[in-house]
What we know:
The protein is an alpha/beta fold. It has helices at residues 2-18, 35-41, 102-108, 142-161, 173-184, 186-189, 219-226, 236-245, 252-263, 275-281, 288-300, 311-318, 348-354, 374-377, 381-398, and strands spanning 47-52, 57-64, 79-83, 112-115, 126-127, 166-171, 192-198, 230-231, 286-287, 335-340, 361-367. It contains 15 helices and eleven strands.
Amino acid sequence: MWQLLAAACWMLLLGPINGYNAKGSNTNPEANMNISQIISYWGYPCEEYDVVTKDGYVLGIYRIPHGRGCSKTIAPKPVVYLQHGLIASASDWVCNPPNCSLAFLLADAGYDVWLGNSRGNTWSRKHLKLSPKSPEYWAFSLDEMAKYDLPATIDFIIEKTGQEQLFYVGHSQGTTIAFIAFSTNPELAKRIKIFFALAPVTTVKYTKSPLKRFTTISRQVVKVLLGDKMFYPHTFFDKFIATKVCNRKIFHRICSNFLFTFSGFDPNNLNVSRLDVYLALSPAGTSVQNMLHWAQAANSGKFQAFDWGNAEQNMMHFHQLTPPLYNVTKMDVPTAVWSGGQDRVADPKDVENLLPEIANLIYYKWIPHYNHVDFYLGQDAPQEIYQDLILLMKECFQN
């Protein structure tokens, strides 16, 4: 990020002299839109809803009920729910043009598409009682997302659509909370036709992402440095960098390298002309506690609930002295998996250890050149992933 800051300063100082303010600059209109505006911009119908969890969090979710040029029919369509990854949002699924964004492709293929947001991100930062300014609001991690967010959202969609089951697509942390929820909540698992896991993450023992840096710092030091509230929220500065710097060809390489630092490298598969859109909508933020949970997982190599730091707190939350382990083998949901060979987050070794634990694995594809964001940003994602994903859905629905 410091490189981007330096680049922005140089641009502001030298831009008028060298003519950069007029040359090589092309901001995509979606870079200045919210999620619902992006959906409408491409000609799709959009509905917005608030979902309230049992512990009082208000989650913003979106619906694309049908494709472009399709009239709203009475006959129910098969339902698909898309869940984003860590410090991300529902924008992941609509940040490319319709021919390359999974949400739009699914809508055009005849599906009723729903996009979720985890608590604490840009679009889900409300609570019935707690203020986001308070530490109490941010006292959550992926445990609560799995225990409260997913059941509340899926129950809402089921009730709204009248469908008994839906397809679930998760990326990264979106798979993590699904593995937890579907292995610990059998009633919820029954509502899932197929679980599509893109860059699945349970353990992060071998991860090479900057997440590893958290493992070398004590929890106390992390809280001193970052506080006990929000981690990596989207700021005005991020928006400025995206729309005033990364939209210029001269900075495309710097901006894309910043993105690759976190995800793994695959420069030929990134549409650099849309960097302003990607970075204008991300990061979307999460809690410091959630990041501490991921650091705990990287340290222990275990798929385990959050350790609250002392036996008394653990007893209060789990009725046992230590946080429980999550057992993926207890999940019987039909599961399709895609993983990448250049993924710095969902490392191939961690995925290799996960696969034998999936009791009902119906499909697996390893994509050698894929990094962590290729699953929703990759220019070849429709060919490498989406066409087979939609085919599996159609085969299931026909049966």
